[in-house]
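Dear support,

We are seeing what looks like truncated structure output for some complexes. This example has two components. We would appreciate it if you could run it in full and send us the complete token output so we can diff it against ours.
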Amino acid sequence: MPDIEPFSPRGMFHEGWTAEVNDYAIACGWALKGKQFIVGDVAGGLFAFEGDTGKIIWEKENTHSGGLLAMAIHPEGEIFATSGQDGNVQICNCHEGKVIKTLDLGKGWVEHLKWSNDGLFLAIASSKKVYVFNEIGEEKWISEDHPSTVSAITWSNKNELATACYGRVTFFDILNNKTNQKLEWQGSLVSMELSPDGDIVACGSQDNSVHFWRRSTGMDAEMTGYPGKPSHLSFDDSGKLLATSGSERITVWSFIGNGPEGTMPGELCHHAEPISSLAFSNKGMLVASGSRDGSVVASFLKKDGNGDPVGAAFAGDLVGAISWRPDDCALAAVNAKGVVNVWKFKVRTNLFSKGFK
Amino acid sequence: MSIKDKVPVTILTGFLGSGKTTLLNRILSEEHGKRIAVIENEYGEVGIDQGLVINADEEVFEMSNGCICCTVRGDLIRVLGNLMKRRDKFDYVLVETTGLADPGPVAQTFFMDEEISSEFTLDGIVTLVDAAHIDQQLGRSDESSEQVAFADVLVLNKTDLVSDDALDTLESRLRDMNRMTRIIRAENAKVPIETVLNLSAFDLDQILKRRPTFLEPEYPFEWTGVYDLDAGKYELMLEEGPDPEMSLVALVNQGESEEELKDGAESSVRLYAEKANTLEPGNTIPYGDHINLKLEDKGNKSFILNIEIPTKIGLFTQHTAEEFNMKVIKSDENKEIPFNTERFWQAEHEHDDEVGSIAIERFGDVDPEKLNTWMGRLLSEKGVDIFRTKGFISYAGNPRRIVFQGVHMLFTAQPDEEWGNEPRRNQLVFIGRNLNEKEMQEGFDKCLI
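Here is the complete output from our reference environment:
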């Protein structure tokens, strides 16, 4: 049996800790370099737990009237931002959860928040406008109205912000208030991810397809045939693999060689119900997926995008968000019932081993 | 998740000034035990009194394939996507569209987007019309006729501003455009809440219970009487009536069951399509022929019916028997023979509007493959003009009836209750613009086994 690898990937979820928040958990993330785990629920409750034990550090209720919509933790992990239906953004301190600054952006829902990689800027999308503030909440830039509500934002480099809406992706140089590039395509773009080098733009579209652009060459491609709209996209840290999902299946496109155009994508079929969250590990080819059925699976991928599950667990209900700890040695999932699950994660492969620290 | 667990959604449409906000306020302020979340596109001057109200700008998203049937409402997907995480806060959703909204994309959103359709179910479309102005609006804009065409319930509002005669005319115009809608007259949007919420309007059984004849096709005759006659000579006697003449078809061996009556009606429709032979009073009525009775003379007029062997005679008459006080009399005994059975039919009349309804009703089974091919082609060619489709079908070999419904070319079909002892039949209604009834009926007939 020559196909059998002598040392195939092995990994698993080990018991970590669980906790509960007050409502449907929609956002989570690791702060203070993994020492703290912050969860936001749909009603506007915020909860900070000790990363190792799950002991509650602080909690707050009703931070946004009408409800919470987004949360983003600063890359340094000392502060974080939240936004909600009240049209406000709060920048808070992670240690005590104290509000450092409240930004009032008007009546519209504030649905998207993204810190730039160096942490100098916070991008905020509310209705048809996008705003950029600095760490202490000073306004640095405002976009014109987009043609529709902005559906995704992400930083392509430290001064360049990409926005997606109906019909186009736009790149703004926010320091010089300039539009660097517009990628147009008639379709409702519901999600967007950029490769880490900022060259590949991938958008999920309402018409059940994924559209790619390569900014350097101007080439674009459309990947059709998804059973549902690909709301979930994640690039691995090398920018070679893009995991996408709009159903219970995960489709992985490999950008190695001439791909993914004309190649067969990898397929991961581990869940009974559609994927509700998807995230590559911070380093390496591990992708974690959470589903509406409450299952959480980590898969180890090969270069062609195919792969095998290396660990699975049950989170109890629809997985609202998942998050790898910065060192990838723990995975957290929060669910629609407000339950928080953190598993220690260990994996050993013939290529690298990690986790057994 | 079964349909019972899904949150019902009512869509409220209607032109500016038709009274949507008044109705909305009424719904929100009344004690009905429901917690209603409202998504509002119209920023009217009248505020919404209470409840969980979310304002959202209408965002119509067309797809790259250019198909209008795939067009959805991005704002609804966004807002409902968020609301589904707060299901403990409400148990009903009302969407108030702008006056100019096309209801198509709103309804399609509940079919096209998997995330939305897994959590929400479209309960019904309620359209308000301003009785004083709808006549002009229908002439001027496509949106208003589409809002009428899509409606499960039409609230004919502001009736106090219009005469009863004008209301009747208006109601019959609206009925022509959309034969499956329920029309409710109201002053100041005062309608019982249960007529607009929890309609299960996409559930065909409910519609049939409310309006059992909504699927009825139209016939060139209004009435049928079946007479059980022995051999002998009879007179068909008519008094003066609303018309100086009347068309009639007489059939021998006419059965009395619903199925037999419908068969007789189908034969008569074909005969009615032929040119009528005129009969003067005193002439003998031939069987299986389209004839036209001359009724100009004053007083009673008689036509002869000759029966050689005992049979049941079916008279399919242009007007009802009552209108002419029509009687069958056995000549030698001068005795009136009453009918055994009578049946009224939905009478044909002129259609002025481009938007209208087509109903197809046929007994028997269809071949699922042929039906799929036919429907597929029909919807791909005419999907843009077909606003709503509802009906049920008898698939050969399937013990359950197949219920289906659609919006433009989106279409779902699912097995429903078993047929049991009921005669197997097919009923379909299409509401759309410039639909060719004959062509569609012929197309459907080819799918029958």
